[in-house]
Design brief:
By secondary structure, the chain is α+β, with helices and mostly antiparallel strands. The protein has 12 helices and 9 strands. It has a 5-stranded mixed beta sheet, with helices on one face. The protein has a 4-stranded antiparallel beta sheet with strand order 2-9-4-7, with helices on one face. Strand 5 and strand 6 form a beta hairpin. Helix 3 runs antiparallel to helix 4, helix 9 packs across helix 11 and helix 10 crosses helix 11. It is globular and about 60 Å long.
Length: about 300
């Protein structure tokens, strides 16, 4: 059984890869040739709270995303969303070659208070439904590399009120190009998918859009499983095996996501937000939010002012 670690911060990956601390706590572009994994990396797996966009060559490891292998022997770019479990294994197809390329890590908190915070979730290549890396032509690789370095130059320069907007615009452009390239790549291919995970995301998104959550309360594991036509035990076991998290944890992740959206885009009080999300007691909401984010709701809101 591989040991499961939880990487809450981008600096956690920097520590794993034995590279210097990130210049910015919420975004980092890493030179993959400098990554040095520990000798026991094949015995580890981790769940991360940030997005990872990889552009890599000559990688000496197989990459597992949930339970399935992410195939990038012939591809170049990979995409991983927050709250997914990853692990590495040896790659017999790569021998005595020096890895190269880039890893862009972006914490969702960097995107809050911007329209892109919601938009980023609509890029299908961040989901389990695609497990094949994106192939790029030489010209496309140069284009993506330039965008990555533009992002790096901006977040490493003197931060001002325009910095976040400029970085996000570059990130959005990069992902839009990736979307175009993926559509080209999979025109004649059948894309495998994890339908239950996709349906779970849709069910929870729809639930938290309901304006009557004050009366309905929080979604339960039993209610969620019923909506997916599964037993609660089966659903939790399936989610645990793929993502390392139970149904309840997935519900909490979605709840915190919605809470951050309201805290960063509205002037509603913490109590009102708690009621809007289905909490009977605001103190329960505050306790859960702090447990998940290491900040109180007010501290999170102040970070944008």
């Amino acid at each position: 059984m591989k040991e499961l670690k939880h990487f809450k911060k981008i600096s956690d990956y920097h520590n794993l890869a034995s590279i210097s601390a990130p210049e910015h706590p919420l975004i980092s572009l890493i030179d993959y040739s400098k990554v040095k994994y520990p000798s026991d990396i094949d015995n580890l797996k981790w769940r991360q709270d940030y997005y990872t966009i990889g552009l890599k060559r000559n990688v000496a490891h197989k990459f597992f995303y949930g339970q399935q292998e992410y195939d990038f022997d012939q591809g170049l770019m990979t995409f991983v969303a927050p709250n997914q479990v990853m692990s590495l294994g040896s790659n017999p197809n790569i021998k005595n070659s020096k890895p190269s390329g880039w890893l862009l890590l972006v914490h969702p908190d960097f995107l809050w208070n911007s329209p892109f915070a919601k938009q980023v979730k609509h890029y299908v290549f961040f989901g389990y439904n695609i497990n094949e890396a994106l192939f790029l032509s030489e010209k496309e690789e140069v284009m993506i590399t330039d965008l990555l370095n533009n992002i790096k130059r901006e977040y490493e320069s003197n931060i001002d009120k325009f910095s976040q907007k400029i970085v996000i615009s570059q990130l959005e452009l990069l992902l839009n190009y990736a979307e175009r390239f993926y559509e080209r790549q999979f025109i004649t291919r059948k894309i495998s998918n994890h339908q239950i995970l996709n349906k779970l995301e849709n069910v929870l998104s729809d639930y938290f859009k309901d304006e009557n959550l004050i009366e309905k309360g929080l979604p339960t594991v039993l209610w969620t499983a019923n909506r997916l036509n599964l037993s609660s035990n089966y659903l939790s076991s399936m989610l645990k095996s793929i993502t390392g998290q139970s149904t309840q944890q997935h519900i909490h992740n979605k709840l915190i996501e919605e809470a951050k959206d309201q805290l960063s885009t509205t002037l509603l009080s913490v109590s009102q937000i708690a009621y809007n999300l289905g909490f009977e007691h605001p103190t329960s909401f505050t306790k859960l939010f702090k447990n998940k984010t290491e900040m109180s709701p007010l501290e999170f809101r102040k970070s944008f002012n």
